[in-house]
Design brief:
The complex is a heterodimer.
Chain A: H1 10-23, E1 28-34, H2 35-44, H3 46-49, E2 54-61, H4 63-66, H5 69-79, E3 85-88, H6 90-93, H7 102-107, E4 111-114, H8 118-127, E5 133-139, H9 144-156, E6 162-169, H10 171-180, E7 188-192, H11 193-199, H12 204-211, E8 215-218, H13 222-238, E9 243-245, H14 257-266, E10 267-274, E11 278-287, H15 296-299, H16 315-319, H17 351-357
Parallel strand pairs in A: 1-2, 1-7, 3-4, 3-5, 5-6, 7-8, 8-9
Antiparallel strand pairs in A: 6-11, 10-11
Chain B: E1 5-15, E2 18-25, E3 28-33, E4 45-49, E5 52-56, H1 59-79
Antiparallel strand pairs in B: 1-2, 1-4, 2-3, 4-5
Chain lengths: 371, 83
């Protein structure tokens, strides 16, 4: 497919790896923010073909992974109500809460449905006026315009049976949290390409300046990722700490102004609890007061939720780039995609799940491939 | 989750007052909301996430990395000492 295949070209990738090797004179630790980027790195083994010393660590950018257990249990409680049609993106359905996942709830008779777009959930509400339709609105800034549009459309069409369970998370506060955490190793970031397609780069400028870290907004294909690494290494070697866009075909510095305006109309910033990390101030979105009638948390009273995370799981350290999946004693043993113990194993974009999917639990230490 | 895929816009329409369109992803067509890409024309490539076009693909920018690699190769050739 156009704009995909050419960015998987092996010859271009090898040229970029050579350029990185020529540029890097000492070790550097670079974090890719997005789960999609982590998936590409592990799938193509990019981390294993980079020159010795240029290390990629995996960031917190999988919204399915970082959705708190409390929120999943809340979704479970709402979806259990016989009158409710509960809609979600597919990857959220398999995430186990304290009492099982949403998919198993469906097998026990609950009306749980996968939708491709939040607008599909609005269409379901229009078709089923006698039943409450609840959409699990998760995601980073990339998904916020779509979720905001669903709420605005439902509001305009007076679909009072439509509500959203909002668990939105924001990237810039998580970058701050990583850089402030004790034991931080990250010296540069491959920024989240699709988040910046919506939000632009203005929020990243103060981060680069304040923490003296290069932030290179990067795409998701192997050539994109390697270009991002090259640009980050060039900045690090030159002692620069700037925001650069290495994904210019999709990202403009101002982002998408129309989409940002819509987000701002429907959502406001709030504190948010991240699975594996804890509460990060001002790191999420919630519905504005004007749209409170569409807030599932207000509409459905859920009894007190008590959750308990595995003591063995080190996902909090993996999400901050301090540890790798293979540093965990449970990885690939008690903890697998079928029996995940924590955030980074629950979705295919989590670092632990990506390592598992590509067989890295079978290796004691991956061999370094020849370039 | 933040997966967004480039596809070619093949048709535009209005549904319930919203700018919508059909986008072709290598043979698979999907209905997509175009409210946030007001300048997208039929034939353009747009980046689509959960049924919403987030941006129009900039073709000139899309070639930039390959031009950079070509220029790098040309520079290397210049570095080869003359016989």
């Amino acid at each position: 497919m156009k704009f995909i295949d050419e960015y998987r070209d092996g010859r271009a990738a090898r040229q970029l790896i050579e350029a990185i090797a020529k540029t890097a004179t000492r070790p550097w630790v670079i974090m890719e923010v997005c789960g999609g980027q982590t998936h590409t790195i592990v799938k193509y083994g990019l981390d294993e073909v980079l020159p010795e010393g240029v290390e990629l660590v995996h960031g917190p950018g999988c919204p399915v992974c970082v959705t708190s257990l409390e929120m999943i249990d809340r979704a479970h409680a709402i979806a259990s109500r016989p009158e409710v049609i509960f809609c979600s993106f597919g990857d959220m359905l398999r995430v186990p809460g304290s009492r099982g996942d949403l998919l198993s709830l469906k097998s026990r008779g609950a009306d749980v449905r996968v939708v491709y777009s939040p607008l599909d959930a609005v269409a379901l509400a229009a078709k089923n006026p006698a039943r409450p339709v609840v959409f699990f609105a998760i995601g980073f800034e990339t998904t916020a315009p779509a979720n905001a549009m669903a709420v605005r459309v439902a509001h305009a069409r007076r679909l009072s049976n439509f509500s959203v369970l909002v668990s939105h998370v924001l990237v810039p506060p998580s970058i701050s949290a990583i850089l402030q955490s004790p034991g931080n190793r990250v010296q540069a970031f491959l920024g989240p390409g699709h988040v910046c397609t919506v939000m632009g780069t203005s929020e990243y400028e103060p981060l680069a300046r304040h923490y003296r870290v290069p932030i290179v907004v990067t795409g998701f294909e192997p050539v994109d990722m390697l270009e991002g690494v090259l640009r980050a290494v060039r900045q690090l070697e030159a002692g620069r700490a700037e925001v650069e866009i290495a994904y210019g075909r999709a990202v403009r510095a101002a982002g998408n102004p129309d989409a940002r305006k819509l987000i701002d109309e429907v959502f406001e910033v709030c504190d948010r609890k991240w699975r594996g990390v804890g509460t990060i101030p001002k790191s999420g979105y919630r519905l504005r007061w004007e749209y409170r009638d569409h807030d599932a948390e207000r509409r459905f009273e859920v009894e007190d939720i008590q959750t308990c995370e595995s003591a063995a799981c080190i996902s909090g350290l993996v999400l901050r780039g301090i540890k790798k999946p293979r540093d965990c004693s449970a990885f690939g043993k008690e903890c697998t995609p079928q029996t995940p113990l924590g955030a980074t194993m629950v979705s295919s974009e989590g670092a632990c799940a990506a390592y598992y999917a590509y067989g890295r639990h079978l290796e004691s230490r991956a061999p370094r491939a020849e370039v | 989750m933040c997966l967004a895929i480039p596809g070619r816009l093949v048709e535009t329409s209005r549904e319930d007052g919203m700018a919508m369109g059909k986008v072709d992803f290598g043979g698979t067509r999907k209905s997509v909301c175009l409210e946030h890409v007001p300048d997208a024309q039929v034939g353009d490539y747009v980046l689509v996430h959960v049924g919403f076009a987030l941006s129009r693909i900039d073709e000139a920018e899309a070639h930039r990395v390959f031009e950079f690699l070509e220029s790098m190769k040309a520079l290397e050739e210049l570095e080869v000492p003359s016989p």
